[in-house]
């Protein structure tokens, strides 16, 4: 920027500052160069009396991609105040800015403006519209924009697939992928990243392996982002071995890659491997982030390394300046709870700078049920009260407390809590489990016999019982 300041000073001395092409070049550098100053570019365009639309577009683009999306919208308002009309290059970055801050009302107004000017039918404007509505949780609007597109690109399909995944429409995202292939569009690395995210949402390892096979079959480049998605998918779908294989073969890794592998090890009880990988990461140039430390704290919890957990929790803040989020506090409570340090866990929660959520309290309540079933410490009683105050309409909390009383024979207290559930008209969320058979995933709800295969399942259980009984009879007769 120093050289630009000097050049601009010479332009001012020479009296060429009114040339709109010169202003355009200055704002282009300020907005799009990594070392450019957006504030300086904004000053230049504000002082110019005959600025070009492209100068304003560059500034809007610069603000939208540099994590200052609100400023992009202010620049747009200033541009309109000057009487300058936007074009098809203006709208995409405005929609990206609105998506970044969830400005649904402003985005709709800009959409209306684009509609009036006939720019809403441009493919790259429509692509960002899909992104905008999907990011703001308006998936039906995103589908409407997509369905009305007369021309689509791979980016169009990637945008709607990602929008469906972000809004938990996992089944829709897979159906759209099939449609994409049927329409003759070949998926790219971005498509595969989205599909792997869908596999994580479904918890479907077989589908994830199929996506990986498509990556290999099509010869796609496993870049850092795609490789990280593969590691994350394998780890979260239960195959930590394959996650490690993919991780080891990657030539380029980001902090997210390391974090996904560390967290994967930790969540599968491989605490030693998680901490060893963390030490290896610290030996390189990559600095850990909040996800990395979440994996480290989970590893300490599973391995019973309370002192190490304390050290890492303080190191995260003091050495790296990472502010703990609720998940970090929950991991520390779990670490104390698994070790039976119930009073220490309760004191830790009481000293938290943020209000603990229900998950943190339930974590400690579960630990109380294991390590202090008779509640000699009195922590369980306090935790139960805190849960009732925080979530007075959650039937699951009442059931947990009632079960804790029942486990130690306090039937009157257990019945009193259960009566409270009935009096309040509360219901506990039905328990559900999933079983994968071949290529299909079957979900079973507690007390629900509506599955088509239930009769076969009950028959199989009966046959297994009879088989066991006959073997026991044969065994007794042999003596």
UniProtKB/TrEMBL annotation:
Looking at the keywords, is Repeat present?
A: yes
InterPro entries xref list: E_motif, PPR_At4g14850-like_plant, PPR_rpt, TPR-like_helical_dom_sf
A Pfam family it matches: PPR
Which PROSITE patterns does this entry report, sorted A to Z?
Answer: PPR
* GO-annotated biological processes: RNA modification
Where does the chain cross the membrane?
none
Name of the protein in its database record: Pentatricopeptide repeat-containing protein
Species name for this entry? Rhododendron simsii
């Amino acid at each position: 920027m120093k050289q630009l300041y000097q050049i601009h000073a010479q332009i001012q001395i020479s009296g060429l500052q009114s040339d709109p092409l010169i202003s355009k070049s200055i704002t282009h550098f300020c907005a799009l160069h990594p070392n450019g100053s957006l504030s300086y570019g904004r000053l230049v365009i504000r002082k110019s009396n005959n600025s070009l639309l492209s100068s304003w577009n560059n500034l809007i683009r610069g603000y939208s991609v540099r994590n200052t999306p609100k400023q992009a919208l202010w620049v747009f308002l200033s541009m309109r105040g000057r009487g300058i009309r936007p074009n098809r290059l203006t709208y995409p970055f405005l929609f990206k800015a609105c998506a970044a801050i969830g400005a649904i009302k402003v985005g709709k107004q800009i959409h209306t403006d684009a509609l009036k000017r006939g720019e809403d039918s441009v493919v790259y404007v429509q692509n960002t519209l899909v992104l905008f509505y999907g990011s703001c949780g308006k998936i039906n609007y995103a589908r409407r924009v997509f369905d009305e597109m007369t021309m689509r690109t791979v980016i169009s399909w990637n945008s709607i697939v990602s929008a469906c995944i972000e809004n938990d429409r996992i089944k829709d995202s897979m159906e759209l992928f099939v449609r994409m292939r049927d329409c003759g569009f070949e998926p790219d690395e971005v498509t595969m990243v989205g599909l792997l995210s869908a596999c994580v949402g479904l918890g479907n390892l077989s589908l994830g392996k199929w996506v990986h096979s498509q990556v290999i079959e099509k010869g796609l480049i496993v870049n850092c982002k795609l490789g990280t998605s593969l590691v994350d998918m394998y780890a979260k779908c239960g195959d930590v071995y394959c996650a490690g294989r993919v991780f080891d073969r990657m030539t380029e890794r980001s902090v997210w890659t390391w974090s996904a592998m560390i967290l994967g090890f930790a969540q599968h009880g491989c605490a030693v491997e998680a901490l060893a990988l963390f030490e290896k990461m610290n030996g390189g140039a990559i600095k850990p982030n909040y996800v990395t430390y979440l994996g480290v704290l989970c590893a300490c919890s599973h391995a019973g390394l309370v002192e190490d957990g304390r050290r890492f929790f303080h190191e995260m803040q003091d050495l790296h300046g990472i502010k703990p989020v609720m998940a970090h506090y929950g991991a520390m409570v779990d670490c104390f709870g698994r070790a039976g340090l119930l009073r220490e866990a309760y004191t830790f929660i009481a000293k938290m700078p943020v209000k603990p959520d229900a998950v943190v309290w339930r974590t400690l309540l579960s630990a109380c049920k294991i390590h202090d079933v008779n509640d000699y410490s009195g922590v369980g009683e306090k935790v139960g009260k805190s849960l009732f105050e925080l979530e007075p309409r959650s039937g699951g909390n009442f059931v947990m407390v009632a079960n804790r009383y029942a486990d130690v024979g306090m039937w009157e207290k257990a019945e009193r809590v259960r009566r409270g559930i009935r009096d309040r008209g509360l219901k506990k969320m039905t328990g559900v489990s999933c079983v994968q058979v071949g290529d299909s995933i079957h979900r079973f709800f507690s007390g629900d016999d509506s599955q088509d295969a239930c009769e076969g399942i009950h028959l199989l259980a009966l046959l297994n019982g009879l088989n066991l009984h006959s073997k026991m009879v044969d065994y007794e007769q042999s003596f």
